[in-house]
Amino acid sequence: xxxxxxxxxxxxxxxEHGIVxxxxxxxxxxxxxxxxxxxxTLDPYEQxxxxxxxxxxxxxxxxxx
Length: 65
Known about the structure:
The protein has 65 residues and is mainly α.
């Protein structure tokens, strides 16, 4: 965009009235969750299970070193 004349800190558009801050890309999702809609949250059981699974994998990586 810099090649087209835009400079950092200025708005988009011909009159520079557009957004200044970049749009958030959102969170990175797992394969199983990637096609769920925006704002979708896991139920408490799934959150707990996912957290424990991550801890298990992290500990395995620690012991393999």
